[in-house]
Amino acid sequence: MKRPPDISITRLAIYLRFLEDYLRAKGPQATINSTELAGFLDINHHQIRKDLSYFGKFGKQGIGYPVEELKDKISRILGLGKERYLCLCGLGNLGSALLAYRGFKQKNLNIVAVFDNDPVKIGRTVAGVKVYGPKAIIPVVKRFNIDIAIVAVPQAAAQDIADRLIKAGIRAILNFAPLKLNVPKRVRLRDVDLSAELINLTYFISSLL
Amino acid sequence: MKRPPDISITRLAIYLRFLEDYLRAKGPQATINSTELAGFLDINHHQIRKDLSYFGKFGKQGIGYPVEELKDKISRILGLGKERYLCLCGLGNLGSALLAYRGFKQKNLNIVAVFDNDPVKIGRTVAGVKVYGPKAIIPVVKRFNIDIAIVAVPQAAAQDIADRLIKAGIRAILNFAPLKLNVPKRVRLRDVDLSAELINLTYFISSLL
């Protein structure tokens, strides 16, 4: 199987989100074809078929895809078929917002530990999750089989936290800190740049003028 | 000029971020060619050339692009050449994190008003920005020439806030609330789904197994 590009994976996540909503609205017998899906999502239907083609054949020509089956298949492709254990590093405003975010849990993504260096927060339980100091990263990551870390600490602390996470055996990091972390090849790093989202809007607005 | 797809705009924002860092590291005389840029960013160099081609010719064959010129040109393309005025709706954890986020200001994106319905917060000044009640949306948006709104309110309040923003003449909304807002065609809507970012990581982890 050819490895699909990152951008196809991102689109699969978008398809999944839409299909979940569609299934709730239309019921378990719903079907959809790639042209309909393209119309709803404003994505080219050739692109949709190409994205899905990386993972084998879906649906029948002319009939479309059974939505429930497609949703489940995409969900498994994306690695969401089983429970995942995550840790959150940094319980500031952004970390607190992420801990409260309900979308993760719906996708089997469970934050099971929080790390922060504030003595006032260490030892407390927030939103059902215990807060540990940074020194606990290695034992806690191992104990809970955590393989994904969300980094939402200040810039100055981010590389140190990343180093501890890597030593603990973490396999993927979602980084909100505004710097490029050094991680070994075996660790998957994804940076979230909130201003990139806004830039799409500024482009749109100025291209109208 | 052919309208570039959304995904090219998203990549231009990524190029811009990289070029800013590169310029700081290498100085104002730096040049870069698309193959080097491709190597740093792990994006196909044909793709990079294609993205840039929507906006005319850049650089000279064989010599590469002068980084400063490329950065400025992309910045203008993305509508970042002038100051923009934004409002933030919702000063919970996520809203507070967004208000403190420094990346916006660096790109001429200025949050000049906050709206929240908590009487304790209304009238206060947070991070230099005044907090207003939702009834002030229409006059404040007009007075400050705000054309982009960031919506970080709870799901139940989001459509009502969006309706007020639209009445006030807002042109673009960045929505963090987990629902699809109804907006007229003339208003650009972009939804941020934080779980989509994590899904890229779960895919990577499970595809290794």
Describe this structure in words.
Two copies of one chain form a homodimer. Chain A contains eight helices and nine strands. Chain A is elongated and about 60 Å long. By secondary structure, chain A is an alpha/beta fold. Chain A has two domains: 6-77, Winged helix-like DNA-binding domain superfamily/Winged helix DNA-binding domain (Arc Repressor Mutant, subunit A, Orthogonal Bundle); 84-195, Rossmann fold, CATH 3.40.50. In chain A, helix 1 runs antiparallel to helix 4 and helix 2 (34-41) crosses helix 3. Chain A has helices spanning 6-26, 34-41, 45-53, 67-77, 93-100, 137-143, 155-167, 194-208; strands at 31-32, 65-66, 84-89, 109-115, 125-126, 129-132, 148-151, 172-175, 188-191. The longest helix of chain A has 21 residues, at 6-26.
Helix content of chain A: 40-55%
**Total domains of chain A:** 2
Instruction: State the total count of DSSP E strands of chain A.
Output: 9
Largest interface: A-B, 60 and 60 residues
Q: Could you name the CATH homologous superfamily of the largest domain in chain A?
A: NAD(P)-binding Rossmann-like Domain
Number of helices of chain A: 8
The CATH architecture term of the largest domain in chain A is 3-Layer(aba) Sandwich
Which fold name fills CATH's third level, the topology of the largest domain in chain A? Answer: Rossmann fold
The N- to C-terminal Cα distance of chain A equals 45 Å
Taken in chain order, the helices and strands of chain A follow as: HEHHEHEHEEEHEHEEH
Mean pLDDT of chain A: 88
Proportion of strand residues of chain A: 15-25%
- This entry's quaternary arrangement is homodimer
- CATH class assignment of the largest domain in chain A: Alpha Beta
What would you report as the Rg of chain A, rounded to the nearest angstrom?
20 Å
Secondary-structure-derived class of chain A: alpha/beta
